[in-house]
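Re: beginner question about structure tokens

> Can someone show what the tokenized structure looks like for a real chain? I only ever see the sequence side.

Sure, here's an example I had lying around. Input first:
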Amino acid sequence: MNHTPAPQTLAELATRLQHFADARQWGPFHSPKNLASALIVEAAELLEPFQWMTEAQSRELGPEQKQAVAHEMADVLLYLVQLSTALGVDLMQAANEKMAINEGRFPPKGTSL
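And the corresponding structure tokens:
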């Protein structure tokens, strides 16, 4: 069992992921193209449990369904963090920049630009 403290930030998670991959000598396989491909596969797996649900059903997942979805969400996050490391992208900075762009493009209802 791993007794490493759980990462609390994206940077800590990136470091843990890098150590994990390095210990398995996966570096040659973790090109940006391969990581982006793996990310898409995991995103598709995230969608699968919802495929035949109604909108209402998707809002009321049972405990087992919710746990399975949480694990798929984690897989998506892990590949996204690995991709950001491979490309040298600060995800928090990129997310904040994108939120600022979106706030400008999509003002709250009842306001105008």
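Each token stands for a local structural state, so reading them left to right follows the chain. The CA atoms of residues 55 and 61 lie 11 Å apart.
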